[in-house]
Every structure is written in C-alpha cells, then in structure tokens.
Amino acid sequence: MSLPLPPLLFVDDEKNARIQFPDMVAAMGFDDVSVVTADSAEQALKLLEQSEYFMVVTDVRLGGMSGYDLLRRARARWPDTPVLVITAYATPRQAVDAIKAGAYDYLAKPYEPEALRQAITRSAEVYRLRKENASLRARSGEVYRLEHIIGESPKMVALRQLIQTVAPTNATVLILGESGTGKELVAGALHSLSHRRERNYIRINCAAIPEALLESELFGHEKGSFTGALRQKSGRVEEADCGTIFLDEIGDMSRPLQAKLLRFLEDGTFTRVGSNQELRVDVRLIAATNRDIIRAIRENHFREDLFHRLNVVQFMPPPLRERGQDVLLLAEHFLRHFGASMSKSIRGISAPAQQKLLAHHWPGNVRELRNAIERAVILETRDKLQAESLPDSQVENRLRKSGSPPVGEASLDDHLAGYERDLIVNLLEREGFDLNRTAEALRISRTALRTRMQRLDIDADDPTARNAAGSATRKRSVA
Ligand SMILES: Nc1ncnc2c1ncn2[C@@H]1O[C@H](COP(=O)(O)OP(=O)(O)OP(=O)(O)O)[C@@H](O)[C@H]1O
Ligand SMILES: [Mg+2]
Predict the structure, then answer these.
(1) Fold of domain 8-139
(2) pTM, whole model, 2 decimals?
(3) What is the pLDDT of residues 93-106, one digit of tens each?
(4) Closest residue (by CA) to atom 26 of ligand 1?
(5) CATH (one of 2.40.50.140, 3.30.450.20, 3.40.50.300, 3.10.20.310) for 146-315
(6) Which of 181, 250, 434 to probe ligand 1 with, by most ligand atoms within 8 A of CB?
(7) What atom in ligand 1 is closest to the CA of residue 184?
(8) Which of 6, 243, 377, 431 is the most exposed place for a label (fewest CB within 10 A)?
C-alpha cells in the first residue's frame, strides 16, 4: 500500500482557472490527488504554513505578490516541496529564470495536459520516496521525536509546545540549562519538526574539538593552509546546507572564532581557512551550553553581540528537581527501557523507592536519573524496584540542608572541610568516580583534586569501604 498524499496547492487569481484545474486533475485519473486552491500568493503562503502539500502549481501573474515571489519564498521555507510555474506570457528567458529560482518545472499556456500529468506523477513519487526514507530513518532511531521528550509538568508541556511553534521557522535558537537536562533532545526535535528535516542535521561539540581545529571543522580549509592540511576540505556548514547545524557547548568557543560565527550568522557567508573566496550556505543554527553564559559575557569569554544574535529564541529545559512527578514518569520510562534491554521484567517502583527518587536533588538531572535506574535494574532482584537498589543520596541531601555538625560543636575549618568533602564525594558519585570529569566539574586540575582528596581522607582505592562510616566519610574506589 502506498502512503497517502497530502493535497496539491493550486494558485491562480482567476476564478475560472480555480474551478477548472481540479476537474482537469480528476479527469487525468489521479484518484489520490486532491486539490486545494488559493487566489493569491499571500494566501498560498498562509496555507503552506498551516499544512503540508506535496506540490505547488502557480500562475506567474497574480494580483499581489507574483508567482515568482511565491516560488522564491516557498523554496526557502519548504525546499522539498516542488513548485511548478505556469504562465501565459512565456519567453525562453522567463523559463530560465524560473528554473534558476528553483522551479521544479515550467509550463507555458496553453500547455499539454500530458506535461502536467507527468509533473504531478513525478512530484507524487518524490514525495512518497522522501517519506519512506524519513520513516526508515525514524525506525533506525536516528530521528528525534517530540514524544521522546518525556514529562507532563507544566514547564515540560510548555517546552514541547514552544518546540512545535519554533521548529518550522528559521529562527536561531539558544538552549541553556544545566548538564543533563535534555538540551540535545530539544535541538534534535527542533530539526526533526522543521521543514529541513530531510536535510542534514550536523552536530558539533565545540568543547570536544581542539580550538585550533574547530574553525577548519566548521568552515573548511584550503590545501596547505596550515600544517596537516594536506588537501582541501569543505566545512561542516557546507554539509549542513539547507539543513540544521547544532553547535553544542558553544560557551567553549574561542573569541576569534566567535567573531567569524557572528559574521556567518549575519548573512550565511564564510571563507575557508586559507582562502579569500566568500562562500554562502543556507543553514539554520541551534546552539547550546550548560555554562552560565551571562557570567561568561561579564568575564569577557563570550561576545555579547553573538549572544544576542543567537538568542532569537531561547529554550531552557528546567532542572529535574523542578519537574515534580516527572521524576517518576522518567524513572518508569528508563525502567522499561533498561528492563527490556537486559531482559528483566521489573514491574514498577515500590513506594519507598518512589519517595527516594522524589527526595533527591538530581544535580546531574535526567542523565543522572537514567544512570541511577540503569544501575538499579542491574542490582534489582525483586519484581519491583526497591529503594535499596537506588544510589544512596544521603550525602547530597545533607549538603543541601547544610546539616554538617551543628554550629558550636566544630570549628569553622571543620565545617568547611566537611562541606568540601561532601561536595567532592558527591561529585565523584555523579561523575561515575571519574577523576578527570570530577576535576573538570570543580574547575581544578586532576592533581589538585587528588591532593584535596588526600587531605580530606577520601580514599581513591578502597571500594570495600563504601558504606563503612556514614555518609560524610564514605569511601569509594575512583576510576
Ligand atoms: N525529557 C526527557 N525525556 C527523556 N529522556 C531525556 C529527557 N531529558 C533528557 N533525557 C535523556 O537524558 C540524557 C541527557 O540528555 P542530554 O544529552 O540532552 O542533556 P544535555 O542537556 O545536552 O546535557 P549536557 O549539558 O551535559 O550536554 C540523554 O540520555 C537524554 O536522552
Ligand atoms: Mg549535551
């Protein structure tokens, strides 16, 4: 069975034409093609905004905006929708112009119905192929979907709504928020719901690529432009042409490159490293960072003008602790996910485990919850998730309530050391006992972290001592 076709949009300011065209299409034997008509380019754009059409057929001479203007705008916004241009005043020059402007085809009145029939058949085929490819990709798990963003708290409902509103536009988007709140999911959903979804979605993690290489990665380079540039290389922005580019961890981009990105955002132009030739692409940009961007601007690490240019629409997925019962919804989701992949059927979460999940502060947000549930599924032996299978978060809860020894029973230094120890142990847990990541989170070197751990008596090599002496002096092995 073939996929159902959305309608064809026919644009003509003459009433007779609008009456005859649908009949003519029906007479050609297309029983799956329905026609919607518009009497102006303006109306056509509105209709295109509201729903999907598999092709547009437009007259050139229209009341207000011309068929060419409609063609140009439709090509920019809906690059996959073929536009067929029909005119009574055909000159070869016009035909060339129309094709150059991106028309799928060009018919001069009076045209052969056969030419129209062929154009419709081809457009319908292209539409179906595109959809099939998209659904294949969706099945292989590549496509991000709105439903993958789980949460019924008011903030998450509003977030999904905003994604739906903003996705079809070309607006630049800035996603801010703590680590693990789902920024990548938001970026992916914005692309998947946009008119660019059939085109490339290129993701670059600005923090993962050495500063010296990031510019060439983004904009490409000419052969010999720097040591190691053995051949010419096109930039990822070129790969993203007509699609979306997601710059993750943009807060880590160097200031000189920020200036180049700003220029690129202004008009889509850029030059490859080592070249003077200006190139241009049509790319939608989404950026994200978990850094405090305002602080970065104040400290001169981030350009304020770039911030404003990126911040056309801002998304801020809320921290998990502000999502109320979503914690349980997400926990159940991950429980099903990991249960299935480990072939363990755990049917729900016990009441004490639910309480424990709701009481936790979740500094690592959804990522931390995901890890906690994965671990719990491994450990669980009963058919419901028990509180004991969840990581112990006493240290963290104490931190929040700053419940270290009551004031008066210890010196300020003791309090501070207690706080520091709790903080480090807590972060070590969050980062899976990875010293590098923990040091990074604390913005100190790995050596400095080791020194502090020694001073604070946090044992890096004794896994057995885990629950030995209460939460504050808890010991764990460290990767
Ligand atoms: N609302 C949600 N529903 C389902 N899964 C989610 C949700 N939010 C986040 N996740 C999952 O949590 C993990 C972390 O999300 P993601 O990578 O998008 O976070 P991030 O905000 O980009 O974090 P970072 O700043 O550390 O890069 C991923 O596995 C993601 O699939
Ligand atoms: Mg991320």
Answers:
(1) Rossmann fold (3.40.50)
(2) 0.60
(3) 777 777 777 777 77
(4) 179
(5) 3.40.50.300
(6) 181
(7) 18
(8) 6
